[in-house]
Amino acid sequence: RTPIIIDTDPGIDDAVAIAIALFSDQLDVKLITTVAGNVGLDATTENALRLMAYYGCDVPVARGAAEPLIRDYEDATDIHGKTGMEGFDFPDPKTSLLLKEHAIDAMRRTIMESDRKVTIVPIGPLTNVALLLKVYPEVKARIGRIVLMGGSTTRGNKGVMAEFNIHSDPEAAAIVFKAGVPITMAGLNVGWEALVLPEDSAKLPAMGKVGTMAYNLFKKYRGGSFKTGLKMYDPCAVACLLAPELFEFQDTYVGVELAGSLTEGCTVVDLKGYLGRQPNASVALSVDGKGFRSWFLDAISKCC
Ligand code: BDR
Ligand code: CA
Questions:
Q1: Inter-residue contact 52 to 29 (CB < 8 Å)
Q2: Do 149 and 241 meet the contact criterion of CB atoms below 8 Å apart?
Q3: Is the CB of 164 inside a 6 Å radius of any atom of ligand 1?
């Protein structure tokens, strides 16, 4: 099983992505680290600990960055609700799993102690991962790859061109893309095709506790999209690991726009090689939407 660390800001789609990873027999989730994103750090950390209680899992959780490296923090409560996981009554957080270490110290220790290279799966803003790579560069050689949800090959969801996770902390994202660690990027362009349609959601309540949770959270996720199809952004990153055959990838250079007057936080994905730079990421260009839907339902049915 591939050892992984999930860096997350739960988050409704985060909650589902974490469940799929935890219950996969191909992945070994060693650590969950939290970051401010969809909601503030106290809430994302509490949510991660509530998920552990609900899933009956004992993965340690470490608190990370409460704010972006440079920018002001902005939440996404309009999408995920005030708590970040609105719509379902979770048990109390399993606080015994909360480490005293900061996320980057816990990540470093987990990576250096592992006898196999560790994959990092960031599904929130990249603040923790950037800090890790800058403060402890020795981890780079021990990271298998970083498989992240963020960015877009086309348009944004936080403004015209920028995606939320990258837009939240573009300096951190720039550090990560420049780090020289292998990166797989699952952006909005695949998230928009990775839909859970109403007929799929209808099957969830019969799929055990994770399905029941997902069904209730989904009713609150992104306003009216329960009826038109829910975009499974963060599960796409996990799917890139577990079912890469569903995606088409291209090795390419990805830069992060830090200074654009209209495009701050945009991932500049140089698919045609205009910039003449070495590829730094394997970018998911497209996903088989039908295949994703059946993969997703199958994965949820196997949870717990
Ligand atoms: C990303 O932003 C968050 O709201 C989701 O959890 C996902 O990680 C999509 O842009
Ligand atoms: Ca997220």
A1: no
A2: no
A3: yes
Whole-number pLDDT of residue 228? 82
Alpha-carbon distance 103 to 53, whole Å?
Answer: 20
Ligand located closest to 167 CA: 1
Nearest atom within ligand 1 for CA of residue 76: 4
- Judge whether 33 and 122 are in contact, CB under 8 Å: no
**pLDDT score at 80:** 86
Query: Could you tell me if the CB of 150 is within 6 A of ligand 1?
Result: no
- Run means of pLDDT, 10 residues per run, the chain, 304 residues: 98 97 98 98 98 98 98 91 93 98 98 98 98 98 98 96 98 98 98 95 95 93 76 98 98 96 97 98 98 98 92
The CA 279 to ligand 2 mean position distance, Å, reads 25
Q: Where are the beta strands (DSSP E) in the chain?
A: 2-8, 27-34, 61-63, 118-122, 143-149, 183-186, 195-196, 230-231, 247-256, 267-270, 281-287
Residue 224: its pLDDT value, please? 60
Q: Cite the DSSP H helix spans in 66-169.
A: 77-80, 103-113, 127-135, 164-168
Ligand 1 centroid – CA 270 distance (Å): 23
Q: What is the pLDDT of residue 81?
A: 87
ipTM of the complex: 0.99
Helix locations, 58-191, DSSP H: 77-80, 103-113, 127-135, 164-168, 170-177, 188-191
**Assigned token pair, 157:** 């969801």
Which residue from 6, 7, 9, 155 has its CB within 8 A of the most atoms of ligand 1, so it is best to mutate? 9
The bridge status of strand 247-256 relative to strand 281-287 is antiparallel
Pocket flag, ligand 1, residue 79 (CB < 6 Å): yes
